[in-house]
Amino acid sequence: MEADTSGIKFGPFWLTPSVSRVNAVSYFFSSFMFVALATFLGFIQPYILSEVLQIPADQLGTVTGRLSAFHECIALFVMGAIGALSDRTGRRIICVVGMLIWAVGLALYPLADSVLQLFGFRLVIAIGVSTASVAVIATMQDYPQEPSRGKWTGTNSFITSFAILLVSVGLARLPRIFQDAGFTSIDAGRLTFWVGASLAVFAALVIRFGWYGGRFARIEKTSSALARFLEGLSEARRNPGLALAYIVAFAARGDLVVIGSFYSLWFLRAGADQGISAGDAIVRAGITMIALQFAVWVWAPVFGWILDRVNRVGATALAMSLAAIGYFTLGEVDNPFNITFAIAATFLLGIGEISAVIAGNALLGQEAPLRIRGAAAGVFNVVGTLGILFATLVGGEIFDRIGYTAPFTMMAIVNGAVALIAIAICIKSGNR
């Protein structure tokens, strides 16, 4: 693969012509904020459910799963159309609008005084997250040239890992910090979410003034959003590599939501069983989550480098195998407060999880035709949403009915199955 020298060289990356270094830096920051806010919601939501709404402990898993499933049902209706629309309008305006809607939802969320009202406010968040998500994923594919795609995706994952660290050791402590400052548990939860809303507004401003505002391909105006979405879907029939990217999205998105929704909840429930307060349990979850971030720091740049030098379908098979091993190992941990085992398992999980994320995004960028890249990103997100629905609905039920680590074991099976599909495609195409 040779770079187009009409584009700019930015560090190790060749950028697509018309993309500036400011655009690239702004994208990395925006991606950082997107992941931070998405992680923030999953990490702090158990506090709202238990401390503000007083949901019984034996119902937390089910309520969490249903809220996430509702969120993803909304995403199914939003993402496909938004992805196709972004091919026409450009990604910037789509992402700005999405982040602002998201900010409104975060500001409203802790004001709910019932589960039903919480679902209403989650609707607002879901629209904002879904809209911004498609633009972020499509822009990730737009900015790098093909020779730099693996390194770009790996670097982005490396950077966004610090966003998760910001939440796990920073924002996750806010409820206790506000309580120590004299606020009630309810007010502490509300103030924490309003900090999140302020960060979403700031991210929208960075996107507005930092992202490239144009389009990367000419689009027929007579082509409807639905037609373009269906084109992105039908392209997978002709291209097994694109089909595999979509399938990886199913597993990788499920992976992320299981960690986001059930990791801290695992600590919360296990802590309650052992007499540990909700605030302290979430802090300890944040401490062990550092192991996952450390794994990303070490592995993401390395795996991105690998993706630029080997067949990406084969690398995807390796990535999904690592994810399966990581989730299986975490599922075998009996007590999350046994710090040595919890940290070791979480580190291994981090390697597998980030491998799946990087591989799926790099494969999407490689296989999606430029003319329908936004539509393909929409399909990628829709399939990923189906994975999230599966993970949250089934994960929530088995968390309450089978055990606190059952969602992790479930995702080990899913990732293993995708690894087998990737191996089959690799063998069939002759790329061993």
TrEMBL record:
Residues 241-432 form the Major facilitator superfamily (MFS) profile domain. The keyword Membrane applies. The keyword Membrane applies. Keywords: Membrane, Transmembrane, Transmembrane helix. Gene3D superfamilies: MFS general substrate transporter like domains. SUPFAM superfamilies: MFS general substrate transporter (SSF103473). The chain crosses the membrane at residues 27-48, 68-86, 93-112, 118-140, 152-171, 191-211, 243-266, 286-306, 313-330, 342-364, 376-396, 408-427. InterPro entries: MFS (IPR011701), MFS_dom (IPR020846), MFS_trans_sf (IPR036259). GO terms for molecular function: transmembrane transporter activity. Pfam families: MFS_1. This is Major facilitator superfamily (MFS) profile domain-containing protein. It comes from marine metagenome.
